Amino acid sequence: VRPGFGKEGRPIDLFANFYRMKFNPRITVYHYDIEIEPKCPKFLKRKLIHKFAQDNKATLFKNGLPVYDGNKNVYSSIKLPVGNDPQSVEVELPEQVDSRAKKFTI
């Protein structure tokens, strides 16, 4: 209960969907909102992000790897050179039955 707010109703316990991150407070963590198209299941999204990260580990991520929540959020301690405009990257997973390129936007 917040003092001075709300005079009616009753207090409730509230749980929120969140992802706890522990990191060195001197490190900046960058958040990137992504979309993967065409729509695909979560296990395939994870494979796509993992392939993208591995393919670009030495160049974009400077030998680090980003963290992906399995949905729309990527976190990295490395600032990616994407600016403010959305960028498109094609990623192919040839081991899939449907081996079309999966395109996602950072």
Describe how the helices and strands are arranged.
Elements: E1 30-33, E2 35-37, H1 42-55, E3 67-68, E4 73-76, E5 88-91, E6 102-105
Antiparallel strand pairs: 1-4, 2-6, 3-4, 5-6
Write up this protein.
β3 (67-68) and β4 (73-76) form a beta hairpin. The strands form 2 sheets. This protein has a 3-stranded antiparallel beta sheet, with no helix packed on it. Strands 2-6-5 form a 3-stranded antiparallel beta sheet, covered by helices on one side. It starts with 29 loop residues before the first strand and ends with a strand. It has 106 residues and is an alpha+beta fold. The mean pLDDT is 82. The chain has one helix spanning 42-55; strands spanning 30-33, 35-37, 67-68, 73-76, 88-91, 102-105.
Brief summary of the model shown:
By secondary structure, the protein is α+β, with helices and mostly antiparallel strands. It has one helix at 42-55, and strands at 30-33, 35-37, 67-68, 73-76, 88-91, 102-105. The mean pLDDT is 82.
Helix proportion range: 10-25%
Uncertain segments of ≥5 residues (pLDDT<50)? none
Main sheet summary: 3 strands, antiparallel
Strand order of the largest sheet: 1-4-3
How far apart lie the N and C ends? 39 Å
Principal-axis shape: extended
* Beta-strand share of residues: 15-25%
* Protein structure class: alpha+beta
Written as H for each helix and E for each strand, in order along the chain, the element string is: EEHEEEE
List keywords for this structure.
single chain, 106 residues, alpha+beta, 3-stranded antiparallel beta sheet, 1 helix, 6 strands, extended
